[in-house]
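[audit] Reproducing an earlier prediction to check determinism. Same input, same settings, fresh worker. If the tokens differ from the archived copy the diff job will pick it up downstream; this log only records the rerun itself.
[audit] input (1168 residues):
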Amino acid sequence: MAEQLTQQQSMAVHDRGGKLLVSAAAGSGKTRVLVERLLDYLTDPADPADLDEFLIITYTKAAAMELRGKIAGRLTERIAREPENKHLQQQLQRLFLTQISTVHGFCSAVLKEYAYRVDLSPDFRVADETECADLRTAVLKDLMDRAYVDGEETANFRDFVDSQGVGRSDSAIPAIVEKVYDAARCHLDPQRWLDSCLSHVELEGVTDAAQSIWGKYLMEQLFSWLDLQIDALRLCQTRLEQGGGAEKPAANIAQLVKQLEFLRVSATWDEVYTRKDVSFGTLRFSGKTYDPALADQVKAVREACKKGLEQRTRWFANDSAQVLADLRASAGAARGIICLVRQFEADFSRLKRARRILDFSDLEHSTLDLLLGKSRTGLTAAARELGGRYREVMVDEYQDSNAVQDAIFTALTQQKQNCFMVGDVKQSIYRFRLADPQIFLEKYGSYAPAEAARPGQGRKILLSSNFRSGGEVISGINDVFAACMSVRVGGLTYGPEEALREGAPHTPLGEAATELYVLEVTDGDAYDKEAAFTAGKIREMLASGATVRQEDTLRPVTPEDIVILLRSPGTMADAFRAALEAEGIRCALDGGANLLETPEVSTLIALLQVVANPRQDIPLLAVLASPVFGFTADDLAAFRAACKKGTVYDALCCSTGEKAAYFLETLAVLRRKARLEPLTQLLQACLGLTRLDSIYGAMPGGKARKENLQLFFQLAVDYEKSSLRTLSQFLEHLQTLGGSQVAASGSSAGCVTIMSIHKSKGLEFPVVFLCGLSHRFNPSDRQEQVLCDKDLGLGLAVADNVHRLRYSAISKQAIAASIKAESVSEEMRILYVAMTRAKDRLVMTCTLKNPEKKLTQLANRLIPGGQTLVNMEADCHADWVLAAAIQRVEAGELHALAGRPERLLTGSCPWKIRLIETAPVAAPTDAPVQERQPFPEGAVDALRAGLSFRYAHEAATRAPSKQTATGRKGRELDEEVQEDTQPRREAPAWRKPSFRQPAGLPAARGSAVHSAMQFICYDACADEAGVRRELARLTQAGLLTPDQAAMVSPAQLAAFFATPIGRKLAEGAEHIREFKFSILDDGGKYGQGLEGEQVLLQGVVDCALLERDGITVLDFKTDRVTEQTLPQTAARYRLQLETYAEALTRIFQQPIKGKYLYFFHLNQFYRL
């Protein structure tokens, strides 16, 4: 970095008199400016400040530590020049008293001091994320238990569950509650935001869908897009009319423009609804007098218009009356979810208060309560007192603040207007952490330039001199973002003021520093081909002696100079790692590898699983075969062959080998410690007894492996902080972390680094390979069950119970459109972060399956005004990079394939742009053909006999070893009688709302009737009244749900007990109910070729009378039958009843008197 401050930096250091926003571009030295501004205050001859008069907010604890170190270093330098300056010497002592922390660290300290002002316990603590997650789960479970109790909000709750498509269980509801709760907590007043969500769906005074907040937004989006599209088409029309020979195409475009203009002037929702079906007609270019290039251009613009219009007019699929009816239909669901969120907030707050803990959101809101009061009406005495302490409040990475944090900064500086904010909105990439870049953009748009600002007026300064990158890389970055970043996409226009400038001269490399390779792929292995190409380029770069800068000289590139940046390492990193290894290049994953999936940690987890339960075969085998215990495949096979019964652990216990004895001895010690000692001590014992850390530490990459084990140990320490945790609880916690990314360590010495773009923020590398540019943007955040927006509220689905359909209301469509626009803008900023990591060389790669089609369409759409439409419709980073690249004169290979765009640019620094045909799968080499040797005599016959061998019991290999009566026509219960007689269970769910199964479903009614007949007291069912009392008893006991009880007809059950067989049961005759059986049967009954085989037959008998003269088998049916269909229906169950009869005969050694089906629909027996 240059020693002398630039003019912009100097202004940022010395400017006083109002709030100051410093928009510091990548590599512009913002940290230096902050430190120099502090030093300028400390050395002010008129009024020297003390360090502890400043509040400095950073984004992370690591950044706070780094900043404190830089301040100390700068103070030390200045004291060395002024050793007599006692004031500066004192500042080194005051440095450790200065508040340099994250916003949450500041809030925690303030609340400790003022706890009595906001009704907090002074000994509160801040809970970690794990503890908060556990508390949330507990609160949600209790909340769900109470949600089904009848009350005034039950109807709204059921509306929500019914309409939002949560399936047969309500397992999705807790996640929805948490999402809406977290969205509300981002607002200054969460309750007011929830109230606004309700007011939106009330639609008071709304007579047209366009008057609703969502209809207004969608119409604005449509009209904004139409303005751009109409301008592009008008330009096409003018060129067609001027060119001559294209009168019909010109008329077609003119008619299209007229229709779009008519749609554009729509004033109501229904006007858009009736005008949205635009006719594009037929576009034909005939004769030889027209310009083919112009024709291709017009076709591309028109086709893009057609596609874009189809996407946007889907919002207007229904007329206003239907749209408003849908919104009103979703109002009950909105009330239901908001009621749940409010109850969750109350319960969660009550539990946290009881435990005297706060989460991060509580810290922010409690601090805001302290500064502005709960009503948020104005500054409190505490706010004035705190604000008066600070000469200035400095906020680093201001672009990543949210509304609550910004309100805290505003309250602290409202009296003095002394807030110094530094950041770069172009690097705001943490929307998933609820950062709001709009806060920065609003100030950026409203603040005056510092040189023109009045005293007390907010002012801004732009730092655009980049001291990190060479001029060639800076030029390439500017070329891309000048073409692509705008207010619509990215949040601001990348004009001359925002463009990067080389802050200090760099030694020229002598060749292109910005490279783009477009790889043509034809199949589904695009990642592998891109990875292989990238690895080849890196090998070539290392072998050819390519250079990077080192101070004022050049030196050869080394592997640790190189980083491969990926948008989504989870899906691509393995391909790049394998490709690098194939080239003999070592690599380290940073931010892409999951700690829990590394070999050393996965071995330790498997060991813990075995300690918890040694009869888990897969973890046990993983531990035995690991380097820790060293069992070979032969070892494993030997002890398993010696004891084939039971689990692997049982076989291991029977083994007499030394390895087995050592393992069992170690396991016994660890299992004893697991019962007696805390989790962290158990982990220490695991590492100490097995020497696992030493074993993996001695392997290649041992340092990183040992760091991974240390990270895992710290994970356990953090988990155990809040309370004593058991091993089983920790293993369950690890399972919940399985789908998330826990970053592993990686030593990059001598390695190429593979890293996510997010992980790279704040870092710099001599050589950046930016790969995976064709990876499509992730749309999942706008496809969730319920959508939230700070302005548009909640987006829900509408249920059409008549047609059994579920579709998005316009509230959800509008929010999805808003989220998409925000996501595309953030992806633009992510691309900016990625490209600005490069110091000396920037190499970009993308893959295209049909490059000619893609590039031709792109080139033809880049007419005046067309670039904005291209930028808005991008679905991957490659769309923006290619749009900039194809307009460069050096993109000759792209032009040869797709033609030139209308405008070509000559940059100050040329790119290297190549179109690459990836190598196909290698064909067999032309090796010399060896003379065929004759087979030995008889070898052919022996080989043919061997290959034609047929296993004598082949039919048995295809037949299941277990059969259920269901397989011979029966019920689901028959399948439950498996080897361990465990009932079949669905995936874990919070609860199963019974009202999700309408009473008319045959399966639900059949299940209800069978449950009633299983648990009802037969002797209490002499009449219909008795049956009703029994159903009420079963409901109260929880054996039937209210809805199940409602499905059972008391009259039908009373009719059964009025029959001779029913009376016998009611009078106490010996019988069995829901009798589960398992018997061995002859396989010949189940298929040809199974004679002599034994098959396990399992099933459940509904009911059977056990009398001295024989057994009467009963099977209850709820099928809807008539007298005409009864014989045919009964015939379907004949084999099933015969199976039951045979099983009962063998079990009870009694003959069968009768086999009966009882059809409740007809109140009639059918004898088989």
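[audit] rerun output stored. Observation attached for the diff report: The chain has a mean pLDDT of 87.
[audit] end
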